[in-house]
Specification:
187 residues, mainly alpha, 8 helices, 2 strands
């Protein structure tokens, strides 16, 4: 009815999600219609709708899918689920790095780290911060050089978060990033 009678939205197309669910995608015909709807929707209602939409999209895309990670991250952020938003910003940052959008990967990783400040301390939170710090350190070294101070800070924080009992490839990646910093600085 919004499309046929009121002409407020228009159909952009039909497409399947990765789980093969069919979906129709609509867009407002003018940004003023979208803004009027946003103004009429209270913050609490908008947050609950964003959270419900994020969870639905996550079900359709899968929990580790990078296809819709940035969109899902923004919806989780609007829905006040900061841990979910940070997790998807990390996926979006990885996706950006895979297509050589290193500066975008830095922005997404920093946004995820900023959201983690609102998440209570837990092993899951530390694990997510560890991944984001490692990713940020690498992307900073790619864009600004191996001796960038922010890369040193990211790897130092990642090393502090790394579980003492764990021995894995990730520890080598952290130590390698730190070694590159000190090597280039001739320290």
């Amino acid at each position: 009815a919004l499309e046929r009678i009121h002409r407020v939205v228009r159909l952009l197309g039909e497409s399947p999600y990765p789980d093969r669910t069919l979906s129709l995608r609509y867009a407002f015909v003018h940004v003023l219609y979208q803004q009027a709807l946003a103004d009429e929707t209270g913050l609490t209602r908008r947050a609950s709708l964003s959270l419900a939409l994020a969870r639905s999209l996550e079900r359709h895309h899968g929990t580790n899918s990078t296809a819709g990670a940035a969109e899902i991250a923004c919806l989780y952020e609007s829905g006040r689920d900061y841990a979910g938003a940070a997790r998807h910003f990390q996926l979006a940052a990885q996706n950006a790095a895979h297509v050589f959008a290193h500066r975008d990967a830095i922005i997404l990783a920093k946004r995820g780290l900023d959201l983690l400040e609102a998440v209570p301390a837990s092993p899951e939170r530390d694990e997510l911060e560890l991944s984001l710090q490692m990713h940020l350190g690498l992307q900073i070294q790619v864009t600004e050089g191996y001796a960038a101070d922010l890369a040193k800070q990211s790897y130092a924080r990642a090393r502090a978060l790394f579980p003492a009992a764990e021995n894995s490839k990730r520890l080598f990646a952290i130590l390698w990033g730190q070694w590159l910093y000190y090597k280039v600085r001739s320290r």
